[in-house]
């Protein structure tokens, strides 16, 4: 999955929504799940992938990330509910392997 992505993470109670951008979604989700970096997601236990979008360029992904971050929580919830109404962890079952 080495393409640009914008993604949403939440915690087990779905009370926090974190929006990020990456050029390697699988690796980045692994980093969140293992709390490799101290910051917002480790502090609020955001490790459940509930939404993502794929892009052709990292610049497009960054523009979209900024757009999504400027929106209110209701708009973010609507995006998640449209694609993932149960708010399941979309990375469930991923095998994390990196060379």
Question: Layout of SSEs?
Answer:
Blueprint: E1 5-10, E2 17-22, H1 25-33, H2 40-43, E3 48-54, H3 58-70, H4 73-83
Antiparallel strand pairs: 1-2, 1-3
The helix content, as a percent range, equals 25-40%
CATH topology value:
GIY-YIG endonuclease
Give the assembly state of these chains. Answer: single chain
Helix-strand sequence = EEHHEHH
Mean pLDDT: 94
Measured between the Cα atoms of the first and last residue, the distance is 13 Å
Give me the secondary-structure category: alpha+beta
CATH superfamily: GIY-YIG endonuclease
* Proportion of residues in β-strands: 15-25%
Count of separate DSSP helical elements: 4
Integer tally of domains: 1
CATH architecture label name:
3-Layer(aba) Sandwich
Largest sheet: 3 strands, antiparallel
Gist?
The chain is of the alpha+beta class and 99 residues long. 37% of the residues lie in helices and 19% in strands.
Question: Describe it for me?
Answer:
It is a single chain. The chain has 99 residues and is of the alpha+beta class. The chain has a single domain, classed as 3-Layer(aba) Sandwich (GIY-YIG endonuclease). It is built from 4 helices and 3 strands; from the N terminus they run E-E-H-H-E-H-H. The protein has helices spanning 25-33, 40-43, 58-70, 73-83, and strands spanning 5-10, 17-22, 48-54. It has a 3-stranded antiparallel beta sheet, with helices on both faces. The chain is globular and about 30 Å long. The model has no long low-confidence stretch (mean pLDDT 94). This is Endonuclease.
